[in-house]
Design a protein that fits this description.
α13 runs antiparallel to α14. The C terminus is likely disordered. This protein has 32 helices and 30 strands. β25 and β26 form a beta hairpin. The chain has about 1000 residues and is α+β, with helices and mostly antiparallel strands. The strands form 7 sheets. Strands 1, 2, 3, 4, 20, 21, 28, 29 and 30 form a 9-stranded antiparallel beta sheet that branches. It starts with a helix and ends in a 12-residue tail after the last helix.
């Protein structure tokens, strides 16, 4: 090591030149590294949609959903699936493990679906697989205006799409909300009954009439010329004039317009969008992988500004979501926090070690950071708030090595040693203790890379960044810091003022008292530790805080299944409520499906005519009513609950990491739906009684009413009709049937035949035509139409029929505590079916359990490193006692800061284990050195505390100060974590300089210097 350090000093010009080159490369790396707002932790998912026309939910569940479920559960990487079986359609959401081989799994899924096709009932459409349901739109732009129809907005949207898709770095643009038009042929049933025609006849006539068959060609001397017979409809009038019947006897003909109304109209059931209450279409853009979306976003904005100038001001062009701006604000904010932290640390270093030493120590900060950017670029680590937080966490620690080296060099110089020798000896002597300290910190962070699942992927870049930065700081302390110290340092004439300070004298007196009352002091600290752990029940548990975004979204469900118009009316009522609140600055609504996924952790929603979604942006500064978004969320929820009827709307906040959805969730699983529902009502009744619950509900199917046509088979045979005749003609009458396609001006429109039936009386008076004999009979002559109740939706989870009970939690209450209370109450109820809790508590148990296992592994790893350095069993155990000392600070800090014990706080506690032992390592190292020089145990302890007081205080202060910007960022994800780190480190440092020497004197005895100091 001395040879390497000496070579770096002798070739200092080369050393500094390469350091400068690496720094420049770091700046370049920072510019080109892809930037995003959040780590991508979306579990890979696919939706399998299978249409079974006319089938009841029970038939869809048994004949379609069940067969597909049984066949796909064993695909590689399978995690879970959720199934919704509705009338005529099966939707299955399949999710994979986050670490699964996605491409391989989806190929296997498609193969499985191909295998099952032959087993599905006749009439089932081919299953459709969508593997892009978790894809997040990077850009969502709405086009809306009072004067514009959906068709015009769609045309404008396509123009925007054409202009924007040329930009490099964009994978695709889509226009959503295109409400298609169709040609509707609405047949008057009373008139149809007068002719020997059925609705199916009209469908077939239009299909045959609107066809173009190649006629061939005529040979001429110069070649062949094709002959085309015009067969396609050229206008709506031509459709109206289509001959559908007639009489040879009186030369009369029947045209379509004689019995039907032909007109253009919007297609029924199309997904619709609204922007601030106006009809809208959405333009969604998706970025390519590993692109710098901030720079691409600037180009998109420039292109948008040019396009906007081509349109009048009454066309409203609004950025619903613009990820490049969000990323830029997020990254810029955290980089500013990082720069603030650097400034704070430099100021502290300047105050503690003096101007010359501060120059030397401070160079380690930018160099370590810039080298880390180089490594991030090589390893493919992106810049987002998690990786930047890793830099901030490492910030205060990366100067520790430089402080230790510079302090050792300065002490040698002050003692009159030659500068070259002072630098080499001071650096080399510090190399092993520094390496051990660095390795113990790395040992605390490295196992976090093994954290499984989405949480592990979410926080995975923090340990990577910390490890890289600390490794770089060690190399810089060994090679660059000695070179700069050789150029800058001089012997000091006066002693450092901190050695004469009140704080140091206080610690020395406190240590004297502790050494005289060893057992009492240790007992006191032990009692303090026990009392501190009791604070867990006071501060509470929480998995993840809500995202730091000024966005809320509402999931809306209408009580009337299958009627999109009713859903739209319900959404408009909610929009009126939102409009009344000054904090709400904009809102985007969807009818019939969810808004395109605009946030990375959002769960996909299944399209349904009774479902809608609203995304709203808010600004709490628009009024003084609310201080936190949780308060606004609760207010809006209560306001909507009290004012809307005919449906429900749940106001939700965005979540970090893996979304939980409802913090309280219970699945009731069984075979019989009615039995499950009875248990659900009992459990839900108990849940509603618990304080703090809100929006208590379940996803049980709505009981909808249907008209059931019960056919008398004997009468059916008597009238020479078939069941097909009845089902097909009723289907066309009520639902409509596509007859053909009408082409105009480059566009295609479906021609749909339907009837004007809108009452039960009209349905009963529909004449059904025999497809064999041609006779027609009124429906009421051979069938009874009865009103019946049915279950409109069946839900399965991993193939099991279930109903889920859910509840949100009011601000200030704990979902974990609510589930504990509910579980106790359920134990006193006699239930018929199995129930499973699947809320925030279970997410905490799964992930906190993994962290606890990793914590044990970290302790063993740190102990092993210390065992190798000290060649002692006792010394590492003494050093490890700093960890419970830090826990005292952590829980008291959380209690004072009113922060719960969350997943991120747990990570802070785990990483704290590797940080707090560093001070004890230095202390024990100096105690052993002092003892080897002949000092007694107590004098050695006092001498070590005296000599190591300045570097211990300096490194602690820099680490704590470096974390302050992370706390001040206001991000709820890091507030609790930074409090835990700062308070834990502060209390641990204070107690370390008192308790560690005290315990050391208790467990060791003075021996002759030729024996091992500690066995």
């Amino acid at each position: 090591m001395k040879t390497i350090i000496g070579g770096a000093i002798r070739g200092r010009k080369v050393t500094l030149f390469f350091a400068f080159i690496l720094a420049i490369m770091g700046l370049v790396s920072y510019h080109i590294i892809p930037k995003q707002e959040n780590p991508d932790v979306s579990a890979p998912g696919a939706m399998i949609t299978t249409v079974y026309p006319g089938a009841l939910p029970e038939e869809v569940a048994e004949l379609v959903s069940k067969k597909i479920e049984d066949n796909i559960m064993d695909i590689e990487g399978f995690d879970h699936m959720e199934t919704i079986s509705k009338k005529g359609v099966s939707n299955i959401l399949v999710f994979l493990d986050i670490d699964a081989n996605v491409d391989k799994a989806w190929i296997e899924l498609k193969d499985k679906i191909d295998e099952i096709k032959q087993e599905l009932p006749e009439g089932v459409f081919e299953p459709l697989i969508n593997t892009n349901i978790v894809e997040t739109a990077g850009i969502i732009i709405s086009l809306s205006g009072d004067k514009y129809s959906y068709e015009q907005l769609e045309a404008y949207g396509n123009y925007f799409k054409k202009e924007l898709r040329r930009i490099e770095g964009i994978s695709k643009f889509e226009v959503l909300g295109e409400v298609e038009k169709e040609v509707k042929v609405e047949v008057n049933i009373d008139k149809l009954n007068q002719y020997a025609l059925s609705l199916e006849d009209i469908v077939n006539i239009l299909r045959r009439q609107n066809i173009e068959i190649p006629s061939g060609s005529i040979q001429f001397e110069d070649g062949k010329i094709d002959v085309i017979t015009q067969g396609n409809f050229q206008s709506l009038q031509e459709i109206e004039n289509t001959i559908i019947g007639g009489s040879i006897e009186n030369s009369s003909i029947i045209r379509l317009k004689d019995i039907a109304n032909v007109y253009m109209d919007l297609e029924d059931g199309s997904e619709k969008f609204r922007q601030n209450g106006k009809n809208a279409v959405l333009i969604t853009g998706y970025f390519k992988e590993d692109e710098n979306i901030v720079s691409i976003g600037k180009e998109v904005r420039e292109r948008l500004e040019k396009i906007k100038k081509q349109f009048s001001d009454d066309l409203s062009i609004y950025e619903v979501s613009f990820q490049p701006e969000d990323v830029d604000k997020s990254v810029t904010g955290f980089i500013m926090n990082l720069l603030q932290g650097i400034a704070f640390v430099i100021i502290v270093v300047l105050m503690v070690v003096g101007f010359r030493n501060a120059i030397v120590v401070s160079t380690a900060i930018p160099l370590s950071m810039l080298l880390t950017f180089n490594m991030m670029n090589l390893l493919g680590i992106k810049i987002h708030f998690m990786s930047t937080a890793g830099l901030i966490i490492a910030l205060g620690m990366l100067v520790d090595n430089a402080i230790v080296v510079s302090d050792a060099i300065q002490v040698n110089l002050d003692e009159g040693m030659d500068k070259f020798k002072a630098v080499i000896q001071g650096t080399s002597r510090s190399s092993i203790p520094m390496l051990t300290s660095t390795l113990t910190t790395v040992a605390a962070f490295m196992p976090l890379l093994l954290l499984p699942g989405a949480p592990g992927k979410f926080v995975g870049d923090i340990p990577k960044i910390v490890i890289l930065t600390l490794a770089n700081s060690y190399l810089i302390a060994m090679l660059v810091t000695p070179v700069i110290a050789y150029l800058v340092f001089k012997p000091r004439i006066q002693k450092d003022t901190i050695k004469k300070g009140f704080v140091k004298r206080f610690f020395e007196k406190l240590l004297d008292v502790s050494l005289k009352n060893k057992k009492k002091v240790i007992l006191l600290v032990f009692i303090l530790f026990i009392l501190t752990t009791r604070l867990i029940s006071v501060i509470g548990l929480r998995f993840m805080p809500f995202a730091d975004k000024n966005i809320l979204y509402l999931d809306i469900t209408s009580e009337i299944a299958g009627d999109m118009d009713v859903t739209e009316e319900l959404i408009m009522e909610i929009e009126d409520i939102l409009k009344e609140n000054p904090e709400v600055i904009s809102y985007t609504s969807s009818v019939g499906a969810g808004i395109p996924k605009f946030y990375i952790s959002m769960l996909p929603s299944m399209p349904s005519k009774d479902f809608g979604q609203i995304m709203l942006r808010f600004d709490l500064e628009k009024s003084e009513r609310f201080k936190e978004k949780e308060e606004l969320t609760t207010y809006l929820q209560e306001e909507i609950n009290s004012r809307i009827r005919g449906g429900r709307a749940i106001v939700k906040m965005l979540e970090y990491g893996k979304p939980i959805g409802y913090p309280v969730r219970i699945r009731v699983i069984g075979e019989d739906y009615n039995s499950i529902y009875k248990d659900v009502q009992l459990i839900q009744g108990e849940l509603e009684k618990i304080s703090g619950t809100i929006n208590v509900d379940n996803d049980a199917s709505k009981r909808t009413f249907i008209y059931s046509i019960e056919v008398d088979d004997d009468l059916l045979r008597k009238y020479e009709l078939s069941k097909y005749d009845v089902q097909r003609q009723v289907n066309i009458a009520l639902k409509g049937a596509g007859a053909s396609t009408y082409r105009k001006a480059g566009n295609e429109y479906d021609i749909v035949v339907q009837s004007d039936i809108d009452t039960l009386s009209q349905l009963n008076n529909l004449k059904i035509k025999s497809s064999i004999f041609g006779n027609k009979v009124l429906l009421k002559q051979f069938a009874d139409v009865k009103l019946e109740a049915q279950i409109d939706t069946l839900r399965n989870y991993d193939g099991d029929l279930n109903i889920m009970i859910t509840s949100d939690v009011k601000h200030g209450y704990s979902g974990v505590e609510i589930q504990n209370i509910l579980e106790e109450r359920i134990s006193k109820i006699n239930l018929s079916n199995e129930f499973v809790f699947d809320g925030e508590r279970e997410e905490i148990d799964r992930n906190f359990g993994s962290i606890r296992i990793l914590f044990v592994f970290i302790i063993l790893l740190i102990y092993s490193i210390l065992l190798i350095q000290f060649n002692s069993f006792i010394n590492p155990l003494i050093i490890l006692l700093t960890i419970p000392l830090s826990i005292i600070g952590v829980f008291n800090g959380l209690f004072i800061g009113k922060k719960p014990l969350s997943f991120m706080v747990m990570l802070g506690i785990v990483s704290l284990a590797g940080i707090v032992v560093n001070n004890a390592i230095l202390l024990i190292e100096y105690i052993n050195d002092a003892r080897s020089q002949g000092l007694s145990i107590e004098l050695a302890c006092k001498d070590a505390v005296s000599k190591r007081f300045r570097p211990i205080v300096s490194t602690t202060m820099t680490t704590i100060i470096g974390l302050i910007p992370l706390y001040l960022s206001g991000n709820p994800l890091f507030e609790g974590m930074s409090i835990a780190l700062m308070s834990g480190l502060l209390v641990s440092t204070v107690l370390t300089m008192i308790i560690i020497p005290t315990i050391y004197t208790l467990v060791t005895r003075d021996k002759s210097m030729d024996e091992e100091v500690i066995k």
